[in-house]
Amino acid sequence: MPPNSASHAHWTTLMPPGTHRSPAPPLIPSLPLSAPAPVRVETASLTGMALGVAAYSLFAAHDAMIKGVITALPAPQILFVRGVVVIALCLIIGRHRVVIDLWHSKNRMLILGRGLMTLAAWVMYYSAGRDLQLAEMTTLYYVAPVLTTVLAVIFLKEQLTLARIGGASIGFFGIVVAANPSGFTIGWPVIMVLGAALFWAFAMILMRTISRSDSTLVQVFAQNLIHVLVMAVAALPFWQGMGLREIALCVAAGLVGGLAQFILVEAARSVPASVLGTVEYGALIWSFIFGYLFWAEMPVTTVYVGAFLVVAAGLTLALSEHRNRREIIDAP
């Protein structure tokens, strides 16, 4: 008997009488001649992008509050008070559990690094607010999304699509147009804002990594705990008296800033860093609005042109990510 005849006979006897008997299937099935699966690009959800827009809009309001008090108080003191407010909120929501989760986190060093980077970014950024208009600060600071996009490719191995490159480029060009760069004078305030952008870009990369395992509440609590501990050393020996207005603005900045941090971390869970950085451009519009309302900073024509380009870049990126997300079909 041939080697496969026994198995063939057993297979045919199990079939009902009168059933057509087809040849036994080969022991080694033939491989389908198909093209290799294409490399997939992680796409961003529209919900995550909307959360990013909401977070950066809140940050714009937060920055306006800080600018309103930066001439009366040093930046370390403002960040200390704001951090205390955010920590109190985290403890009210998470109680002792948030402390335990932070202690057992495997990303403590990454969390420490992100906290120090965001602290350095904010100290430099708000210190420059003494000499720059809110719109100028925001415009210079928005080199950060471009840096984030580059760093995401290097450290997170994120794939760059044409839409992401185009969105970052158009958005940055809109920032340059709105800024009217001929009006800038290079000095320490400008250098500090650019340095803040670099630190913030690195912090965004770390946030994207940490968000994969640690809860949002733990990250917000840890970041502000680091800020408070460091700023206590810098601010308490030189503490200045605070009036009702300064206290109200610092507390409000803590409430708004804490909510913005929470939403931003949530957005980072579903949005690649290269996309989330481009979403950041949307807050530019709020900066000009707040500058006009509170400090009578009148935008020129180029501001409206630049704002249009920024909005166009964001909408184009959102539509592209949504289309790519719908086209992805998971292989069985």
Automatic annotation (TrEMBL):
Domain of life: Bacteria
Topology versus the membrane: Multi-pass membrane protein
KW Transmembrane helix (keyword) present: yes
Ranges annotated as spanning the membrane: 79-98, 110-128, 140-156, 163-180, 186-206, 218-240, 246-268, 275-295, 301-319
Keywords: Membrane, Transmembrane, Transmembrane helix
Predominant subcellular localization, coarse grouping: membrane
Localization in the cell: Membrane
Coiled coil: none
GO cellular component, one term: membrane
Key word Transcription present: no
Domain EamA stretches: 47-177, 188-313
Family to which the UniProt record says this protein belongs: Belongs to the drug/metabolite transporter (DMT) superfamily. 10 TMS drug/metabolite exporter (DME) (TC 2.A.7.3) family.
Protein name as it appears in the record: DMT family transporter
Species whose genome carries this gene: Devosia ginsengisoli
